[in-house]
């Protein structure tokens, strides 16, 4: 079978190519350039990554292709990224990049080049059960990336292979060394390419100019001045520029809310202060990997950020929106980020968080709880 691998120049996609080749597939590599470097881009590593991708393909003797998807990335991902920040929300571009670029634009290009399936170096698994493709967590829980893949559907999963889903990251490095792949010791990339190692606020200011305003406590006390509410996220501690204040105590200050129309940033002391906690959230239109919700209301576990441990919750479906109620209060649940649902190792899908019932979360009492919520315990991971 001809498989087109998204080869990034990193160790993960390099080993994915090796494993596909060892499995007997006809493997070809396609390098995606998703950002045009300029003076505002910072130290994006596209050129170096492309050279590494070419070297890996040369080492394995597989054809190399390269395509520039920068225009598609700008229209499908980055424009939305900026719009969300202008609205005072905190988007997750990795989720949108997977849906719009890696599993749409890349998938279409792979088919045009004659590939039957695509593959990537993501840590996740796919299987087929009861007539549906399922997205599963990776065996290596510390590297699992199913959270970022929750916006995919049946068509994408049917066409995708994840060669790294069944192995540990440490084994990936071993395989790369054993095969003398030129990327075997390469440091894992972090963050978003178009930001690189630059200060995030400096980068964002190139596209969304600073608009200074007041920093106040929830009680209304004026504490200082911020540089623009769009530059801050809930739960943020660093970068507030607040020194010691007479009578304020020694606890650190945290962002607890944003009033975008009034251009006011709300802050409070203490990482566990009540202003940061919510137990209920509402979402935008969800994506269910199976195509439909498991039930009109159901118990499961969920994550509201990538590195979070699974949290027990109840999900209620209200048309094209969801209401999620957690068993325990959650810290710094952030509109614009994604809530992703799980039944043990199976990723059910997810949605963008629209609002929460935190004091500054913007949640409206639009939904009423169902009187017939299931009482069974939520599934635990096995």
TrEMBL record:
tRNA-specific 2-thiouridylase MnmA-like C-terminal domain sequence ranges: 279-353
InterPro entries, per the entry: MnmA-like (IPR004506), MnmA-like_C (IPR046885), MnmA-like_central (IPR046884), MnmA-like_central_sf (IPR023382), Rossmann-like_a/b/a_fold (IPR014729)
Site (Interaction with tRNA): 122, 337
Domain of life, per lineage: Bacteria
Interaction with target base in tRNA, as annotated region: 92-94
Active site positions, chain numbering: 97, 193
EC number: 2.8.1.13
Keyword tRNA-binding tagged: yes
Keyword Nucleotide-binding part of the UniProt annotation: yes
Keywords: ATP-binding, Cytoplasm, Disulfide bond, Nucleotide-binding, RNA-binding, Transferase, tRNA processing, tRNA-binding
EC supergroup of this enzyme: transferase
Ranges for region Interaction with tRNA: 143-145, 305-306
GO molecular function list: tRNA-uridine 2-sulfurtransferase activity
Stretches that traverse the bilayer: none
The reaction(s) this protein catalyses: S-sulfanyl-L-cysteinyl-[protein] + uridine(34) in tRNA + AH2 + ATP = 2-thiouridine(34) in tRNA + L-cysteinyl-[protein] + A + AMP + diphosphate + H(+)
Domain tRNA-specific 2-thiouridylase MnmA-like central: 202-269
Family: Belongs to the MnmA/TRMU family.
Function description: Catalyzes the 2-thiolation of uridine at the wobble position (U34) of tRNA, leading to the formation of s(2)U34.
NCBIfam families: PRK00143.1, trmU
Name the record gives this protein: tRNA-specific 2-thiouridylase MnmA
Gene (UniProt): mnmA
């Amino acid at each position: 079978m001809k498989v087109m691998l998204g080869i990034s120049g990193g160790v993960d996609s390099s080993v994915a190519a090796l494993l596909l080749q060892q499995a007997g597939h006809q493997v070809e590599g396609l390098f995606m350039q998703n950002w045009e470097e300029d003076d505002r881009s910072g130290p994006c590593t596209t050129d170096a990554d492309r050279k590494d991708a070419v070297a890996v393909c040369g080492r394995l003797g597989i054809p190399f292709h390269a395509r520039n998807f920068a225009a598609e990335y700008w229209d499908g991902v980055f424009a939305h990224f900026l719009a969300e920040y202008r609205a005072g929300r905190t988007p997750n571009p990795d989720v949108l990049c997977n849906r719009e670029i890696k599993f749409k634009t890349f998938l279409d290009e792979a088919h045009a080049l004659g590939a039957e399936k695509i593959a990537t170096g993501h840590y996740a698994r796919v299987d087929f059960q009861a007539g549906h493709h399922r997205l599963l967590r990776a065996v290596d829980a510390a590297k699992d990336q199913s959270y970022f893949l929750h916006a995919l559907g049946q068509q994408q999963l049917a066409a995708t292979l994840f060669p790294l889903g069944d192995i540990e990251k440490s084994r990936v490095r071993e395989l790369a060394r054993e095969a003398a792949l030129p990327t075997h010791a390469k440091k894992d990339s972090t963050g978003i390419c178009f930001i690189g190692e630059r200060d995030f606020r400096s980068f964002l200011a190139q596209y969304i100019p600073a608009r200074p305003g007041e920093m106040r406590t929830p009680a209304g006390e004026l504490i200082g001045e911020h540089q623009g509410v769009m530059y801050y996220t809930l739960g943020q501690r660093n970068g507030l520029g607040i020194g010691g204040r007479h009578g304020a105590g020694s606890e650190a200050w945290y962002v607890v809310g944003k009033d975008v129309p009034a251009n006011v940033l709300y802050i409070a002391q203490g990482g566990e202060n009540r202003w940061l906690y919510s137990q209920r959230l509402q979402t935008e239109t969800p994506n269910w990997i199976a195509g439909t919700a498991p039930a009109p209301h159901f118990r499961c576990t969920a994550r509201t950020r990538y590195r979070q441990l699974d949290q027990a919750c109840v999900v209620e479906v209200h048309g094209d929106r969801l209401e999620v109620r957690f068993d325990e209060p959650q810290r710094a649940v952030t509109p614009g980020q994604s809530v992703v649902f799980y039944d043990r190792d199976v990723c059910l899908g997810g949605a963008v968080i629209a609002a929460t019932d935190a004091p500054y979360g913007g949640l409206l009492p639009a939904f009423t709880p169902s009187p017939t919520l299931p009482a069974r315990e939520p599934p635990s991971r096995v």
